[in-house]
């Protein structure tokens, strides 16, 4: 049996998934993510652990630790797989229409993370070299949460390419960028729907925003500073901050905008926002997914009928309310993330020649 390391890592990276080919070709995208993270933590000397929460694994598919890459002897990254069985999943009203409750699964990882700082991200990404340099050299602050842009690329990455070849291909094939532009500091122009404006117009809007404190209340100013677009792909803050906001809201619904509520809760409690430079981004392969903003209205209606979710209007209303009250949501149960439940865990550690071992994981202490 492989035991837990005596020294906690600086950074815990939490993801959630299952081996069900979600979006088409998911296993290949997950392989790219894990191999990339192993290489990047080694290249940039990042002291980290990866926690993969496998929620409601399909009974006819191998578990992820059986099919995803394991560390080699010279890797710095510790990889842990926590299995949340179907019995837990079936407790939820939407269990039949949602195979994975992504944010609740990430809470499972947050509660079991050993790092001083915790990054919640997704298993279908590739981190840029610049982003990994930031993670390695930035002195992370306990009073700050960190965001990174997401750059969408076509479905063309080959898991067999070297990391440098994958990164070069991504850099040359960016389709779109999601997230706040850190060059404009006075307001989140993306949140105002100004992504398509050229830089001169963005600069002008940003300068005009200097006068907004004379007209807008504090909570509205804060809300339009938030970098919520694609924040489920990269939200980093201290373990204490995640505990203070009680992780993600554990809602029995589709996860749309639940990631944004976590940023709202952090900002409401006074945590500062820092957005990494534009080249310090994640690369995301475009694939079929459950929800897109360009869906026809009737398709969106049918989607929401099957998978209830939060819309933009409610998100804004919730955000303004919490920011005005300077309070988190306080809706999760005390053992959110199933802190009192023992789950099976598979660990892959670079210290051992046998990279997969099973352990019974007890409740969070």
The shape is globular
* Distance N to C terminus: 20 Å
Number of helices: 12
| Low-confidence runs of at least 5 consecutive residues | 1-6, 351-358
What portion of the residues fall into strands of 2 or more residues?
15-25%
Using the coordinates shown, work out and report the CATH topology: Spore Coat Polysaccharide Biosynthesis Protein SpsA, Chain A
SSE run: EHEHEHHEEHEEHEHHEHHEEHHEE
Largest sheet: 9 strands, mixed
Read across the widest sheet, the strand sequence of neighbours is 10-6-9-4-1-2-3-12-13
Mean pLDDT: 91
Question: How would you describe this structure to a colleague?
Answer:
This protein has 365 residues and is of the alpha/beta class. The chain has a single domain (11-179, 227-330), classed as Spore Coat Polysaccharide Biosynthesis Protein SpsA, Chain A (Alpha-Beta Complex), CATH 3.90.550. 31% of the residues lie in helices and 17% in strands. It contains 12 helices and 13 strands. The chain has a 9-stranded mixed beta sheet with strand order 10-6-9-4-1-2-3-12-13. A 4-stranded mixed beta sheet has the order 5-11-7-8. α1 links the parallel β1 (11-17) and β2 (48-55). The model is unreliable at 1-6 and 351-358 (pLDDT under 50).
Concise structural overview:
The protein is of the alpha/beta class and 365 residues long. Helices cover 31% and strands 17% of the residues.
Structural descriptors:
alpha/beta, nine-stranded mixed sheet, Spore Coat Polysaccharide Biosynthesis Protein SpsA, Chain A, 12 helices, disordered N terminus
Write the layout of secondary structure elements.
Blueprint: E1 11-17, H1 26-43, E2 48-55, H2 64-67, E3 78-84, H3 86-89, H4 102-112, E4 117-121, E5 125-127, H5 129-137, E6 144-147, E7 150-153, H6 163-172, E8 176-178, H7 199-208, H8 218-223, E9 234-238, H9 239-245, H10 258-268, E10 272-275, E11 282-285, H11 297-306, H12 312-325, E12 344-348, E13 357-360
Parallel strand pairs: 1-2, 1-4, 2-3, 6-10, 7-11
Antiparallel strand pairs: 3-12, 4-9, 5-11, 6-9, 7-8, 12-13
